[in-house]
Write a structure and sequence with these properties.
By secondary structure, the protein is an alpha/beta fold. Helices cover 49% and strands 10% of the residues. Strands 7-8-9-13-14-15-16-17 form an 8-stranded parallel barrel, surrounded by 4 helices. Strands 1-3-2-6 form a 4-stranded mixed beta sheet, with helices on one face. The protein has a 3-stranded antiparallel beta sheet with strand order 10-12-11. The structure holds 2-acetamido-2-deoxy-beta-D-glucopyranose (3 copies).
């Protein structure tokens, strides 16, 4: 008998060691157990707090100051309908409450606005369980430029409430790091004005932080760095209060040129010159990076983390992000040099562990797929870090599931992320069923190192339905029956259970939101927002006329019951723009092409008039005004110079996006002010051009339209 016992004991230890070793150990902040109440007070009418009086959240100590292995909450409903909520953390509790509000009380908190009914359905004698994987992640580096660049506390406060209400427990937080880097680099001997040719201006910080851009827009003032830092600190404190773990930056290798140029500083250190990003020149790209083999790497990395810790007031997280090769190949001459890759990963990890022995490095999978790393290179890079110390964001899982191409990241913990949107373009599109299946496949096949799911859109304020769906998916172990879900979505969104709004959403889900796998991204096919050209047309994957007719037939009753509802108006605007673009835009563009071929100047003129009318119409169905974006950029600027620079960069990033149009129209927006003022004006210029030129020379036209319309528009917004 004793022998058997002994055998049992050692087996148990083995099993424990195996699961314990690679597990993701995320430090949980000492949050405020009652912080959920403040969120509800801010966002919801009084009846919501009356419904949810009994909410019991475990303390961080009860959770062992570790992010629980799964997100858990329960709502118990007594036979008299009284509700009690039990949850691991405040954000778990809020997610349960919010889900209840959405499914039982016809209420929704969305990005642009909320919709609340006046109470919940009758409901008694029930227990609702909420369970998810360990991680619910929010963030993409780019969102901090494309959506958050000009945000101040009021916008952030609302957004964090939304984050908490949807149960996210890890949030990317790169904001404010420049103030810390400034001190670190100056401490190493870099002069203040050299930093102006290193940091970019506010609008472009996302790409600065990923090693893609420097100096573009002329750096940041000390005052702006401090504003960003103070804002970040406030955001972080609120996240911590709610039990949400911020992911802070760590050193990826990028440094100002002066470290190499000024020979007195580090005469024996080795540096690499990174490739330039997307055709930006060496003045604004091609950053300098410390060689991972050089001890200076460890020194800078640990100095930064110590200073960050000091400025933020202690050990608030053990999650740190670094992306050394975002859309740039490793610079070494042989491109993928195994020892270089390995050393890079090791140096990032080691410099972090020097300061925080529990450091977990959060890495975006983007480089692997974007630059098509060979499998051996991925393997050699990833194998440099022990399992458990790396958390990979599989950033675009719904389309390019990197986990499938890398044997589940060779055992490293990873998060299945929905990216869905690039640059913040507004086209209605998506595929709810595909999202559902993609995550289900990962749940079934990826193994226990799939530790959660996330949202990683480049910009918010578009296609809300797709993200709300994914959020619900995070809390479900099984596929979600779509029809029921849509019914509930339409009810919560408009706070009413009209059949016609359910029908509206069923049609949208069966058309715009059923984009087939192999269909290209329509942000390119909606040609009206790109540089004009001939023979363009918008194509959809569904029977367009039938769908539009169907939608049209619902309009009278929809308008009757929901005409004044703010979220319905917003959805209707989105649909109307899609209809107008397709119906008028396609026809006018076709007619323009024909007219040019037939040299029919009159028809050219008529087609153009139609196009201009169309842009005017689109303006009236816009959900946002470009002017606000520009005004927001001005209003945060702390110096007179930045009051000039911010609006220009705000405009640049949505239009030409680069001094010579490097990312032209990548972040196009269907906003009032841009529709006629920029896209319309550009088509007018095209029309005038073809009236004056018998032969269309593409090169000539591109040069001229950039010089006469695109660039002047971008720099005129002061
Ligand atoms: C949000 O909704 C309320 C009414 O529900 C409305 O008064 C307000 O104007 C809306 N805000 C926006 C920005 O649409
Ligand atoms: C850079 O510019 C060239 C020529 O204009 C173009 O063919 C290429 O696609 C551009 N590369 C990137 C990454 O934008
Ligand atoms: C188009 O214009 C460019 C620049 O002016 C010129 O170099 C090129 O030869 C022209 N192409 C044709 C087909 O005329």
């Amino acid at each position: 008998m004793p022998r058997t016992n002994c055998f049992y004991v050692s087996l148990l230890i083995l099993v424990w060691a195996k699961t314990g070793e690679g597990a993701l150990r995320v430090q949980l902040p000492d949050y405020d157990k009652n912080s959920w109440r403040n969120v509800l007070k801010r966002v919801a009418p009084d009846w919501v707090l009356e419904e949810f009086q009994d909410v019991r959240v475990s303390s961080a100590a009860e959770n062992g100051f570790q992010l629980p292995k799964s997100g858990n909450a329960r709502i118990e409903i007594s036979k008299h309908g009284k509700k009690s909520v039990m949850a691991n953390t405040p954000t778990d509790a809020l997610n349960a409450i919010n889900t209840y509000l959405r499914t039982q009380c016809l209420s929704q908190v969305s990005w642009s606005n909320s919709s609340f009914s006046s109470g919940c359905r009758k409901h008694s004698n029930d227990i609702l369980n909420f369970e998810s994987k360990q991680i619910r992640y929010f963030g993409n580096m780019c969102t901090f430029s494309y959506s958050f660049a000009w945000w101040e506390w009021p916008q952030w406060e609302k957004f964090i409430d939304w984050i908490a209400l949807n149960g996210f427990n890890t949030v990317l937080m790169p904001l404010g790091q420049e103030a810390i880097w400034r001190d670190v680099f100056m401490g190493l001997g870099v002069e203040r004005d050299e930093l102006d040719s290193y940091f970019t201006s506010q609008a472009y910080l996302a790409w600065h932080r990923m090693g893609n851009l420097k100096a573009y827009g002329g750096g940041l003032s000390d005052a702006q760095m401090l504003n960003d830092f103070n804002l970040a600190k406030r955001i972080i404190n609120r996240l911590l209060e709610l039990g949400i773990v911020p992911i802070l930056p760590t050193f990826a290798g990028f440094v100002p040129d002066q470290l190499e140029k000024d020979f007195r500083l580090f005469p024996t250190s080795k540096f690499n010159r990174l490739p330039c990003w997307n055709n930006f020149t060496s003045e604004t790209s091609c950053l300098l990076s410390v060689s991972p083999f050089d001890p200076l790497f460890q020194k800078i990395g640990s100095t930064f983390l110590r200073h960050q810790k000091k400025m933020l007031g202690g050990d608030i997280t053990n999650l740190y992000s670094a992306d050394p090769f975002n859309e740039i190949l490793p610079s070494d001459s042989s491109k993928f040099d195994a020892s270089f890759m390995k050393q890079t990963a090791q140096s990032i990890m080691n410099s972090c562990r020097k300061v925080d022995k529990n450091c977990i490095w959060v890495l975006q999978s983007w480089s692997f797929t974007y630059d098509q790393w060979p499998n051996w290179a991925i393997k050699s890079f990833l194998s440099a870090v022990p399992i458990g110390n790396l958390l990979i964001l599989d950033l675009y899982s719904e389309v390019v599931p990197a986990w499938q191409m890398t044997s589940s990241f060779h055992g490293h913990n990873f998060v299945w992320c929905l990216l869905h949107n690039f640059g913040g373009s507004r086209e209605l599109r998506g595929n709810l069923q595909k999202v559902d299946k993609g995550y289900q496949l990962a749940l079934m096949k990826a193994g226990s190192n799939l530790v959660g799911a996330g949202l990683s859109m480049e910009a918010i304020d578009q296609n809300y339905v797709v993200y709300q769906f994914m959020i619900d998916r995070m809390w479900s172990q099984e596929p979600i029956p779509l029809n029921n879900w849509l019914k509930s979505y339409s009810e919560s969104r408009y706070s009413a259970d009209f059949k016609v709004s359910h029908k509206f959403w069923t049609i949208l889900a069966g058309s715009f939101y059923s984009q087939p796998e192999k269909w290209g991204n329509p942000r390119f096919s909606v040609f009206l927002y790109h540089r004009p050209a001939f023979a363009k047309k918008i194509e959809y994957w569904f029977p367009v006329e039938e769908t539009f007719n169907h939608l049209q037939s619902l309009m009278p009753s929809l308008m009757h019951v929901l005409g004044d509802h703010p979220l319905f108006k917003e959805d209707l605007n989105d649909v109307m723009r899609a209809v107008i673009q397709f119906e008028i835009g396609n026809e006018a563009a076709l007619s323009l092409t024909e007219a040019f071929l037939m040299e029919d100047k009159q028809q050219i003129g008529a087609s153009c008039e139609n196009l201009m009318d169309m842009f005017q119409k689109l303006e009236s169905y816009s959900n946002r005004d470009f002017k606000e974006w520009i005004e927001d950029s001005k209003s945060i600027a702390p110096t007179s110079e930045e009051r000039q620079v911010f609006p220009v960069t705000a405009s640049d990033i949505l239009t030409v996006w680069g001094p010579t149009g490097q990312n032209l129209d990548y972040a196009h927006r269907e906003w009032a002010g841009l529709l006629s003022g920029y896209y319309g004006r550009r088509w007018q210029y095209f029309c005038d051009w073809i009236l004056e030129h018998d032969v269309f020379n593409h090169t000539d036209f591109s040069i001229s339209v950039f010089r006469d319309v695109e660039r002047p528009f971008a720099i005129s917004n002061i």
